[in-house]
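cron nightly-structures :: item 1 of 1
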Amino acid sequence: MKRISWVFSFLSLFFAASLVFSAILKVSEKQPVDISAGKSVYYWEIERIILEVSNKNKPKIVQGNSVLVADTIIFDQKNNIGYAYGNLVFENKKEKTVLKAGEGTYYAKEKKMIVQKNPIIYMKKDNTTVKGDMMTFFTDKDYMVVDGNVEIKGKDFTITGDKARYNQEAGSFTVTGNAKTIDKSQVLSAKTIDVQSKENQLSSYSAVGDVVIENTNDNYLIKAGKLDYYESLGYSRISDHPVIEFKKNNIKAYSTVMEKYDKEEKANLLGDVIIITGDKQAFSKWGVYDFKSEAMILTGNPILVQGKTKMNALKIIVDIAKETMSMQGGGSGIFEYKLN
C-alpha cells in the first residue's frame, strides 16, 4: 500500500488563479485604447455609445496585449457602465489567457466586472480552465467570485463546487457547497475547502463538514468533520469523529484525532481508539498505523473484545490484509469457550 498523502494539487490552483488576475484585471490604464467597429452610434439624449457588427466587422477594443471583442458593446457614460453582448471574447495575448462568455457588464464606479451565460476562462500557459454560471471580478481588490456549477480543471487536478472565491491579496481560495478536489490518486470532498497561500505557494488548507478522503489506488476511505494541513510542517490533522474504513477488508478504525507527517510512513491515532472487524473489537488510548506493513499497533491499555471474551495486553496488533488481531506481552482477561 502506498502511504497516505493528504496534499492535493493546490499549488497549480494558486498559479492558475494568479494568472487570471494578471491577464484579465491588470490592464494598465496608461496604455492607449484603440476602438473599432463595423457600426457606431452615439445617443446624446441618453449619453450612450453603441458599437455593433457591420460587414463582418465586430466591435473591438484593444489596449496593450488585451483585446475585447463582442457582437455589441455599449458604454453608458452617464452611469459609467459598459456592456458587452453576444460572443464576448477577452484575450490577453501576453499571458495566453482567454475569457469567453455570452455577455459581460463592467461597473466603472465600483470597479466590478460580471460575466455570465456560460463563462469560461482558458489559461493556455498551464492548460487550466475555469467554468461557472457567473463570474464576478473586483478589479481594485484582487478578488474573484465564481457562482454556480464551479469547475476548475488543470492538467493533474479538478476542483468543483457550488461557489468559489479567490482573494489574491489575502492569498486565500475557498470553495463552498459540495466542494471536491480530484487529483491522480485521491479525491477530497467537504462542505467547504479553504486554501491559504504565501507568495503563490501553498501555506495551509482546511476542509470542513462531511469530509471524505478516498485514495483511488488503495483500499482506504477516511471520513471526518475536519481536515487541516500545514505545508511548513508537512503535517495533517483529522478531527471531529474521524474514521478510516478499509473497504476490502471490512475493518474500521476510530479515534478522537488522526495525524500524519508527510515524511513518515505512519499515521497516529490519538484518543479513544476503536478498531472493529466482524465480531471483534479492540480498544486503546492510542495507536499507530504503519503503511508499509499494513498493520495497526495499539498501545495504552489495549483491550480485545469478542462476545463475552475480554483480553488485555501490552500491545494489540491489527493486520489489515489478514483481518486478524493478535496480542503481545502480558495477556490476561476473561475467555469464553462454548462446547458443542
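cron nightly-structures :: done
The longest helix spans residues 10-25.
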